Protein: NmrA-like domain-containing protein
Amino acid sequence: MVKVAVAGGTGGIGRHIVDAILNTQLHHVVVLSRSPYHADLQSRGAEVIAVSYDDPTSLENALRGVHTVISTISDTTDGNASVTSQLALLQAAVQAGAKRFAPSEFNARPTRSNDPIDLYTYKAVVTEAAKNSGLEYTLFESGVFMNYLASGTKGVGYLNPLKFVFDVENCSAKIPGDGNNEISWTRGEDVGAFVAASLELESWPEVSWMAGERKSFNEILKLAEKVRGQYIPG
Structure:
């Protein structure tokens, strides 16, 4: 059993990861949050610690005794804020003596500084810092969260609804390019289970790939049309 801290673990993909780790009953889970009150998590045995990413001392204290730090910090409206918070978390992990760090990756492609998708460009900065931190690290690459296809329903899980390429609720789609390239699609619940299982590995690879399905946008479109009817091009 090790102590695992999940930053951003009260919602989104972080909550799926926290749930999965708690389900294993193998590790002590610390959830870093801006609020100390999350009764649903605390009732299941998670320790919730309120932190400020602007306060290095609070972060370092929260991570004392933690073996593995998993970041799920994400701000789609301000990538710079995500970078600043994650770098502060990484520095605190080093200072507190943590052994492992996983940046908030969960991409549809490998991280690179010239990535054409704005949402991903900031991730490369944190990845580079993790490489140079001296901590063991891995990049959890999951592709697109399949739950997004269920935006507007309970199927979205803990994720914020996002109509990425497909708006299944309103039968429309905006497919980039010719739509024939295969990409990975993974449910948030499966991402959580994968990350939880990775805690048992003796060593982490640089990249931890996962895929619930490998399908092109056009293949997803055919499935959506079968379920919902004719689609209107965006």
